[in-house]
TrEMBL record:
InterPro entries named in the record: FAD-bd_FR_type (IPR017927), Fe3_Rdtase_TM_dom (IPR013130), FNR_nucleotide-bd (IPR039261), MRET (IPR050415), OxRdtase_FAD/NAD-bd (IPR001433), Riboflavin_synthase-like_b-brl (IPR017938)
Domain named FAD-binding FR-type: residues: 222-322
Pfam families: Ferric_reduct, NAD_binding_1
Cofactor list: FAD
Chief site of localization: membrane
Localization of this protein: Membrane
Transmembrane spans: 18-41, 53-73, 93-114, 134-155, 167-184, 196-217
Annotated PANTHER family: 1,2-PHENYLACETYL-COA EPOXIDASE, SUBUNIT E (PTHR47354:SF8), NADH OXIDOREDUCTASE HCR (PTHR47354)
Species the sequence originates in: Actinoplanes sandaracinus
Keywords assigned: 2Fe-2S, FAD, Flavoprotein, Iron, Iron-sulfur, Membrane, Metal-binding, Oxidoreductase, Transmembrane, Transmembrane helix
Membrane topology: Multi-pass membrane protein
Stated name of the protein: Ferredoxin reductase family protein
Amino acid sequence: MIAVAHPQPVAARRTSDLLARAAVGAFLLVGLGALHLMFVVAGPPAYNTFSSAGRLLGLYLAFAMVCQVLLIARLPLLDRAFGMDRLTGWHRWTGFAVFWLAVLHPSFVILGFARYGQDPVLATALSLSQQVPVLLGLIAVSLIVLIVALSVRIARRRLSYETWHTVHLLFYVVLGLGIVHQVYEGTAFTVNLATQVFWWGLWAFALGALLTGRLIVPLVRNRRHRLRVAAVVSESGDVVSVHITGRHLDRLTARAGQFFLWRFPGHNRWWQVNPFSLSAAPNGRSLRLTAKGIGSTSAGLRDLPVGARVFAEGPYGAFTLARRTRTATLLIAGGIGVTPIRALLEDPDLGRDVIVIYRVRSGNDAVLLGEMRNLARERGARLHLITGRTGGANQPFQPENLRRLVPDITSRDVYVCGPAALTNAILDSLRRLKVPSRQVHAELFRLAG
């Protein structure tokens, strides 16, 4: 039976969220203010307005890269306050900012030198590229252009997640080249001891957070828990569940609704990693992920041998009951997005006033349906299975139809997980139904897409 617990008070979470927002705002204000102060203290450039603009754009570029490193570090404070979906969105837009600054910074510098020397722009560019620090910077720019070109929507759709993730590892090369370039060309950072301490202290903080969050903590946790595959269960023709055991899992701070980045050493290459949500609430003894065979990693899960080693990075995500503001809950799942929803349905903090909507194309696509029905029966929840193609009269998530299905929807917390098109349609209907935004929680799998 499911043990029912009272919802956690939201005062502590709201305080934590406010602190996180204040920390982000203060970091940006102080960082940008310091950049402009360093720009002014460094004095006017020796050449012209183009050189001056190039120097300022270079400062912006370096700071944007620091921000990108901190986003990649996946700081727990930010993850709990904003959720990985929002952070991934910030990561994407910061990436585009890095791209444009990386293009504009050398362009203005080259124009400045060309105008000062009265030389052709191309000749100036070729001359500057013969200097090693400049050449390293130009190589970094080229790699940034490649990464962004393969990240735009039309190119991203043609790449598997594994390929896309591997390409993004080039950012670490860009990072190394950029730091070396700053050491030799960053005159604004070396004006006095204060600017040097601030600038390299900022980089030390960012790189320290990256190494701690993405390397040291995962290594320590995996050494402690020693995760292994306990069983592999086929749920349907292309969906498989992997049961994982280990030591001291009660000390793993995972919650229903969260996900890990999973690696399977010996089965896949070390750089192949996939974000899979937990499909069962953590119980201190085992973990379970359920995935649909789309990429090479997920498709190969059914071939994992029992006893295979597992390397997990996380847990991540704010798609948990810690975000809840009401005692009544609506859970909406679409397709394989049922995995975190199924875990939430098992969470003892959920309570009993629960409605579940499970949207699939056909009954055969409804993986974990038997488990969902059993959990709903134990909890006294109402489960609606909606099948068929969307269109015509079958528009279950139109505002009027959603309200008909859940008359008190505005008084519930709503958790939504599914394909992007379905999730966006539901979020639009919730806005039109005037469901308060603080009661809406969505997992968009942006990290995987």
